[in-house]
Structures are given as C-alpha cells and as structure tokens.
Amino acid sequence: MTAKLERPDVRAHVLRAALQAIDEVGPDRLRVRDIAERAGMSTGHVMYYFGKRDRILVSTLLLSEDELAERRTAELTAIADPREAISRFAELYLPRSAGDVRWRLWAQVIARPPDDAETLARISGFLDTWVDELARLAAEGAERGLFRPVDDVEDYATRMCRIMDSLANDVLLGLPGRGPGWAHEQAMRAIRRELLP
Q1: Which DSSP string do the residues of 169-184 spell out, in sequence order?
Q2: pLDDT by residue (tens digit) across 179-191?
Q3: What is the pLDDT of residue 7?
Q4: What are phi and psi of 157, to 5 degrees?
Q5: Dist CA 167 CA 172 (whole Å)
Q6: DSSP per-residue codes, 96-130
Q7: Burial label, 142 (beta-carbon count in 10 A; 0-12, 13-18, 19+)
Q8: Structure-derived torsion over alpha carbons of residues 140, 128, 65, 87, reported in degrees to the nearest 10
Q9: Is the pLDDT of residue 2 over 70?
Q10: What's CA 186's distance to the chain center, in Å?
C-alpha cells in the first residue's frame, strides 16, 4: 500500500513529473494531461495544486534552479583551481543542447512572465546567485594571483552572465555551428579577456 503524500510532497511529485513531460514533449506542447499521466494523477488533481499551466512551468523552473544551485555549489567548491572552476561554471550555466529542458523552461517563462512579486523575486534571486558565484571565483583567482583584479567584480560577473545568456540563445535556436561546445569556447574567451594577466 502506497503512503499518502503530504501537500508539499505532492507538489514536488507533480513538478518532477512535469520535468519528465517537458523533456519528452517540450514546454511549448506540454499539456496538463501529460503531467497528470506521468504523476499518476487526474488533471483535476494537478490543477488543484497549481491552478494553471503557466504556474506549473514557473514552479518547475524554480525546482530545476534550486537543484542546479545545490549541484553547482557542491561541484565548484570541490574544484581547487579557480580557472578550472570558472570553466565548469560556464558549462553549468550554458545549455547542454538545443533541447535543454532548463533553458527551454526559461524561454517559456520569459515569453509569459509571472505577475506576482514573490515569484519574480525568486527568479531574480536565482540570477543573482549565478552572478555572485562568478564574482566569487574571479575575486578568489585574483587573490591567489591567477587572475588580474577587476575594478567592479560584480559588474564584471553580471556582464559575463548576460553574454552567456546571448550565447545560450544561439544554442537553443540550433544555429549551424553554434552548439554547446562553441558557446562554452566563446564564453571562456569573454571571461578570460578581462581576467588573464
């Protein structure tokens, strides 16, 4: 007999089913029925927890970002050399393919942004954590004499993340010759240009 899930557990269960469905059918073609089938629930039950499809997409993005933030912190902390850590940072930031689920979710949320302040604040917080992490790595490398000190490390990190956003768009569009490897190479050129002595 399966134990009854508590409300937060049910929400997490639905969001994991949503991630699976998005990976299989894509966020643009996603139906609530696709999520419900993978969650083993009725569409009405799914809608009870989220209210509308767009809320499911936003909540799934937030879950995905939460999980990636934990992984990013663990991975980057384990890398002793800031130069290697920054390279791994760029790999984690950029899409892994034109069909990268996390980035496709970002595209959907940008196309239909949430209108509540709490969700917008959480999204802004995720963006800030990426900037903060890159700023930390750049500052650490400068302290160890591996990088040239940057006057405004926060501004530098923000610019590099926005450059990577632009590179990610090319990958997501599937432009010829502009895959994940190309994006990473371009990102690292931009990042190193101001850091290397």
Answers
A1: HHHHHT-TT-SHHHHH
A2: 999 999 999 999 9
A3: 61
A4: -65, -40
A5: 9
A6: SSTT-HHHHHHHHHHHS----HHHHHHHHHHHHHH
A7: middle
A8: -30
A9: no
A10: 19
Position 67, amino acid: E
The residue among 189 and 29 whose pLDDT is bigger is 189
Assess whether 77 and 167 both reside in one domain.
Answer: yes
Task: Give residue 42's domain range.
Answer: 1-51
What's the gap between Cα 143 and its chain centre?
28
Query: Which two tokens mark 75?
Result: 């991975």
Q: Residue 154 corresponds to which tokens in the numbers above?
A: 């926060």
The residues near 27 (Cβ < 8 Å, ≥ 6 apart) are: 57, 101, 104, 105, 107, 108
Identify residue 44 by its one-letter amino acid code.
G
Query: Does 16 share its domain with 106?
Result: no
| Spatial separation of the C-alpha atoms in residues 148 and 71, rounded to whole Å | 28
Q: Is the dihedral of CA 21, 99, 57, 33 positive or negative?
A: negative
CATH code: domain of residue 19? 1.10.10.60
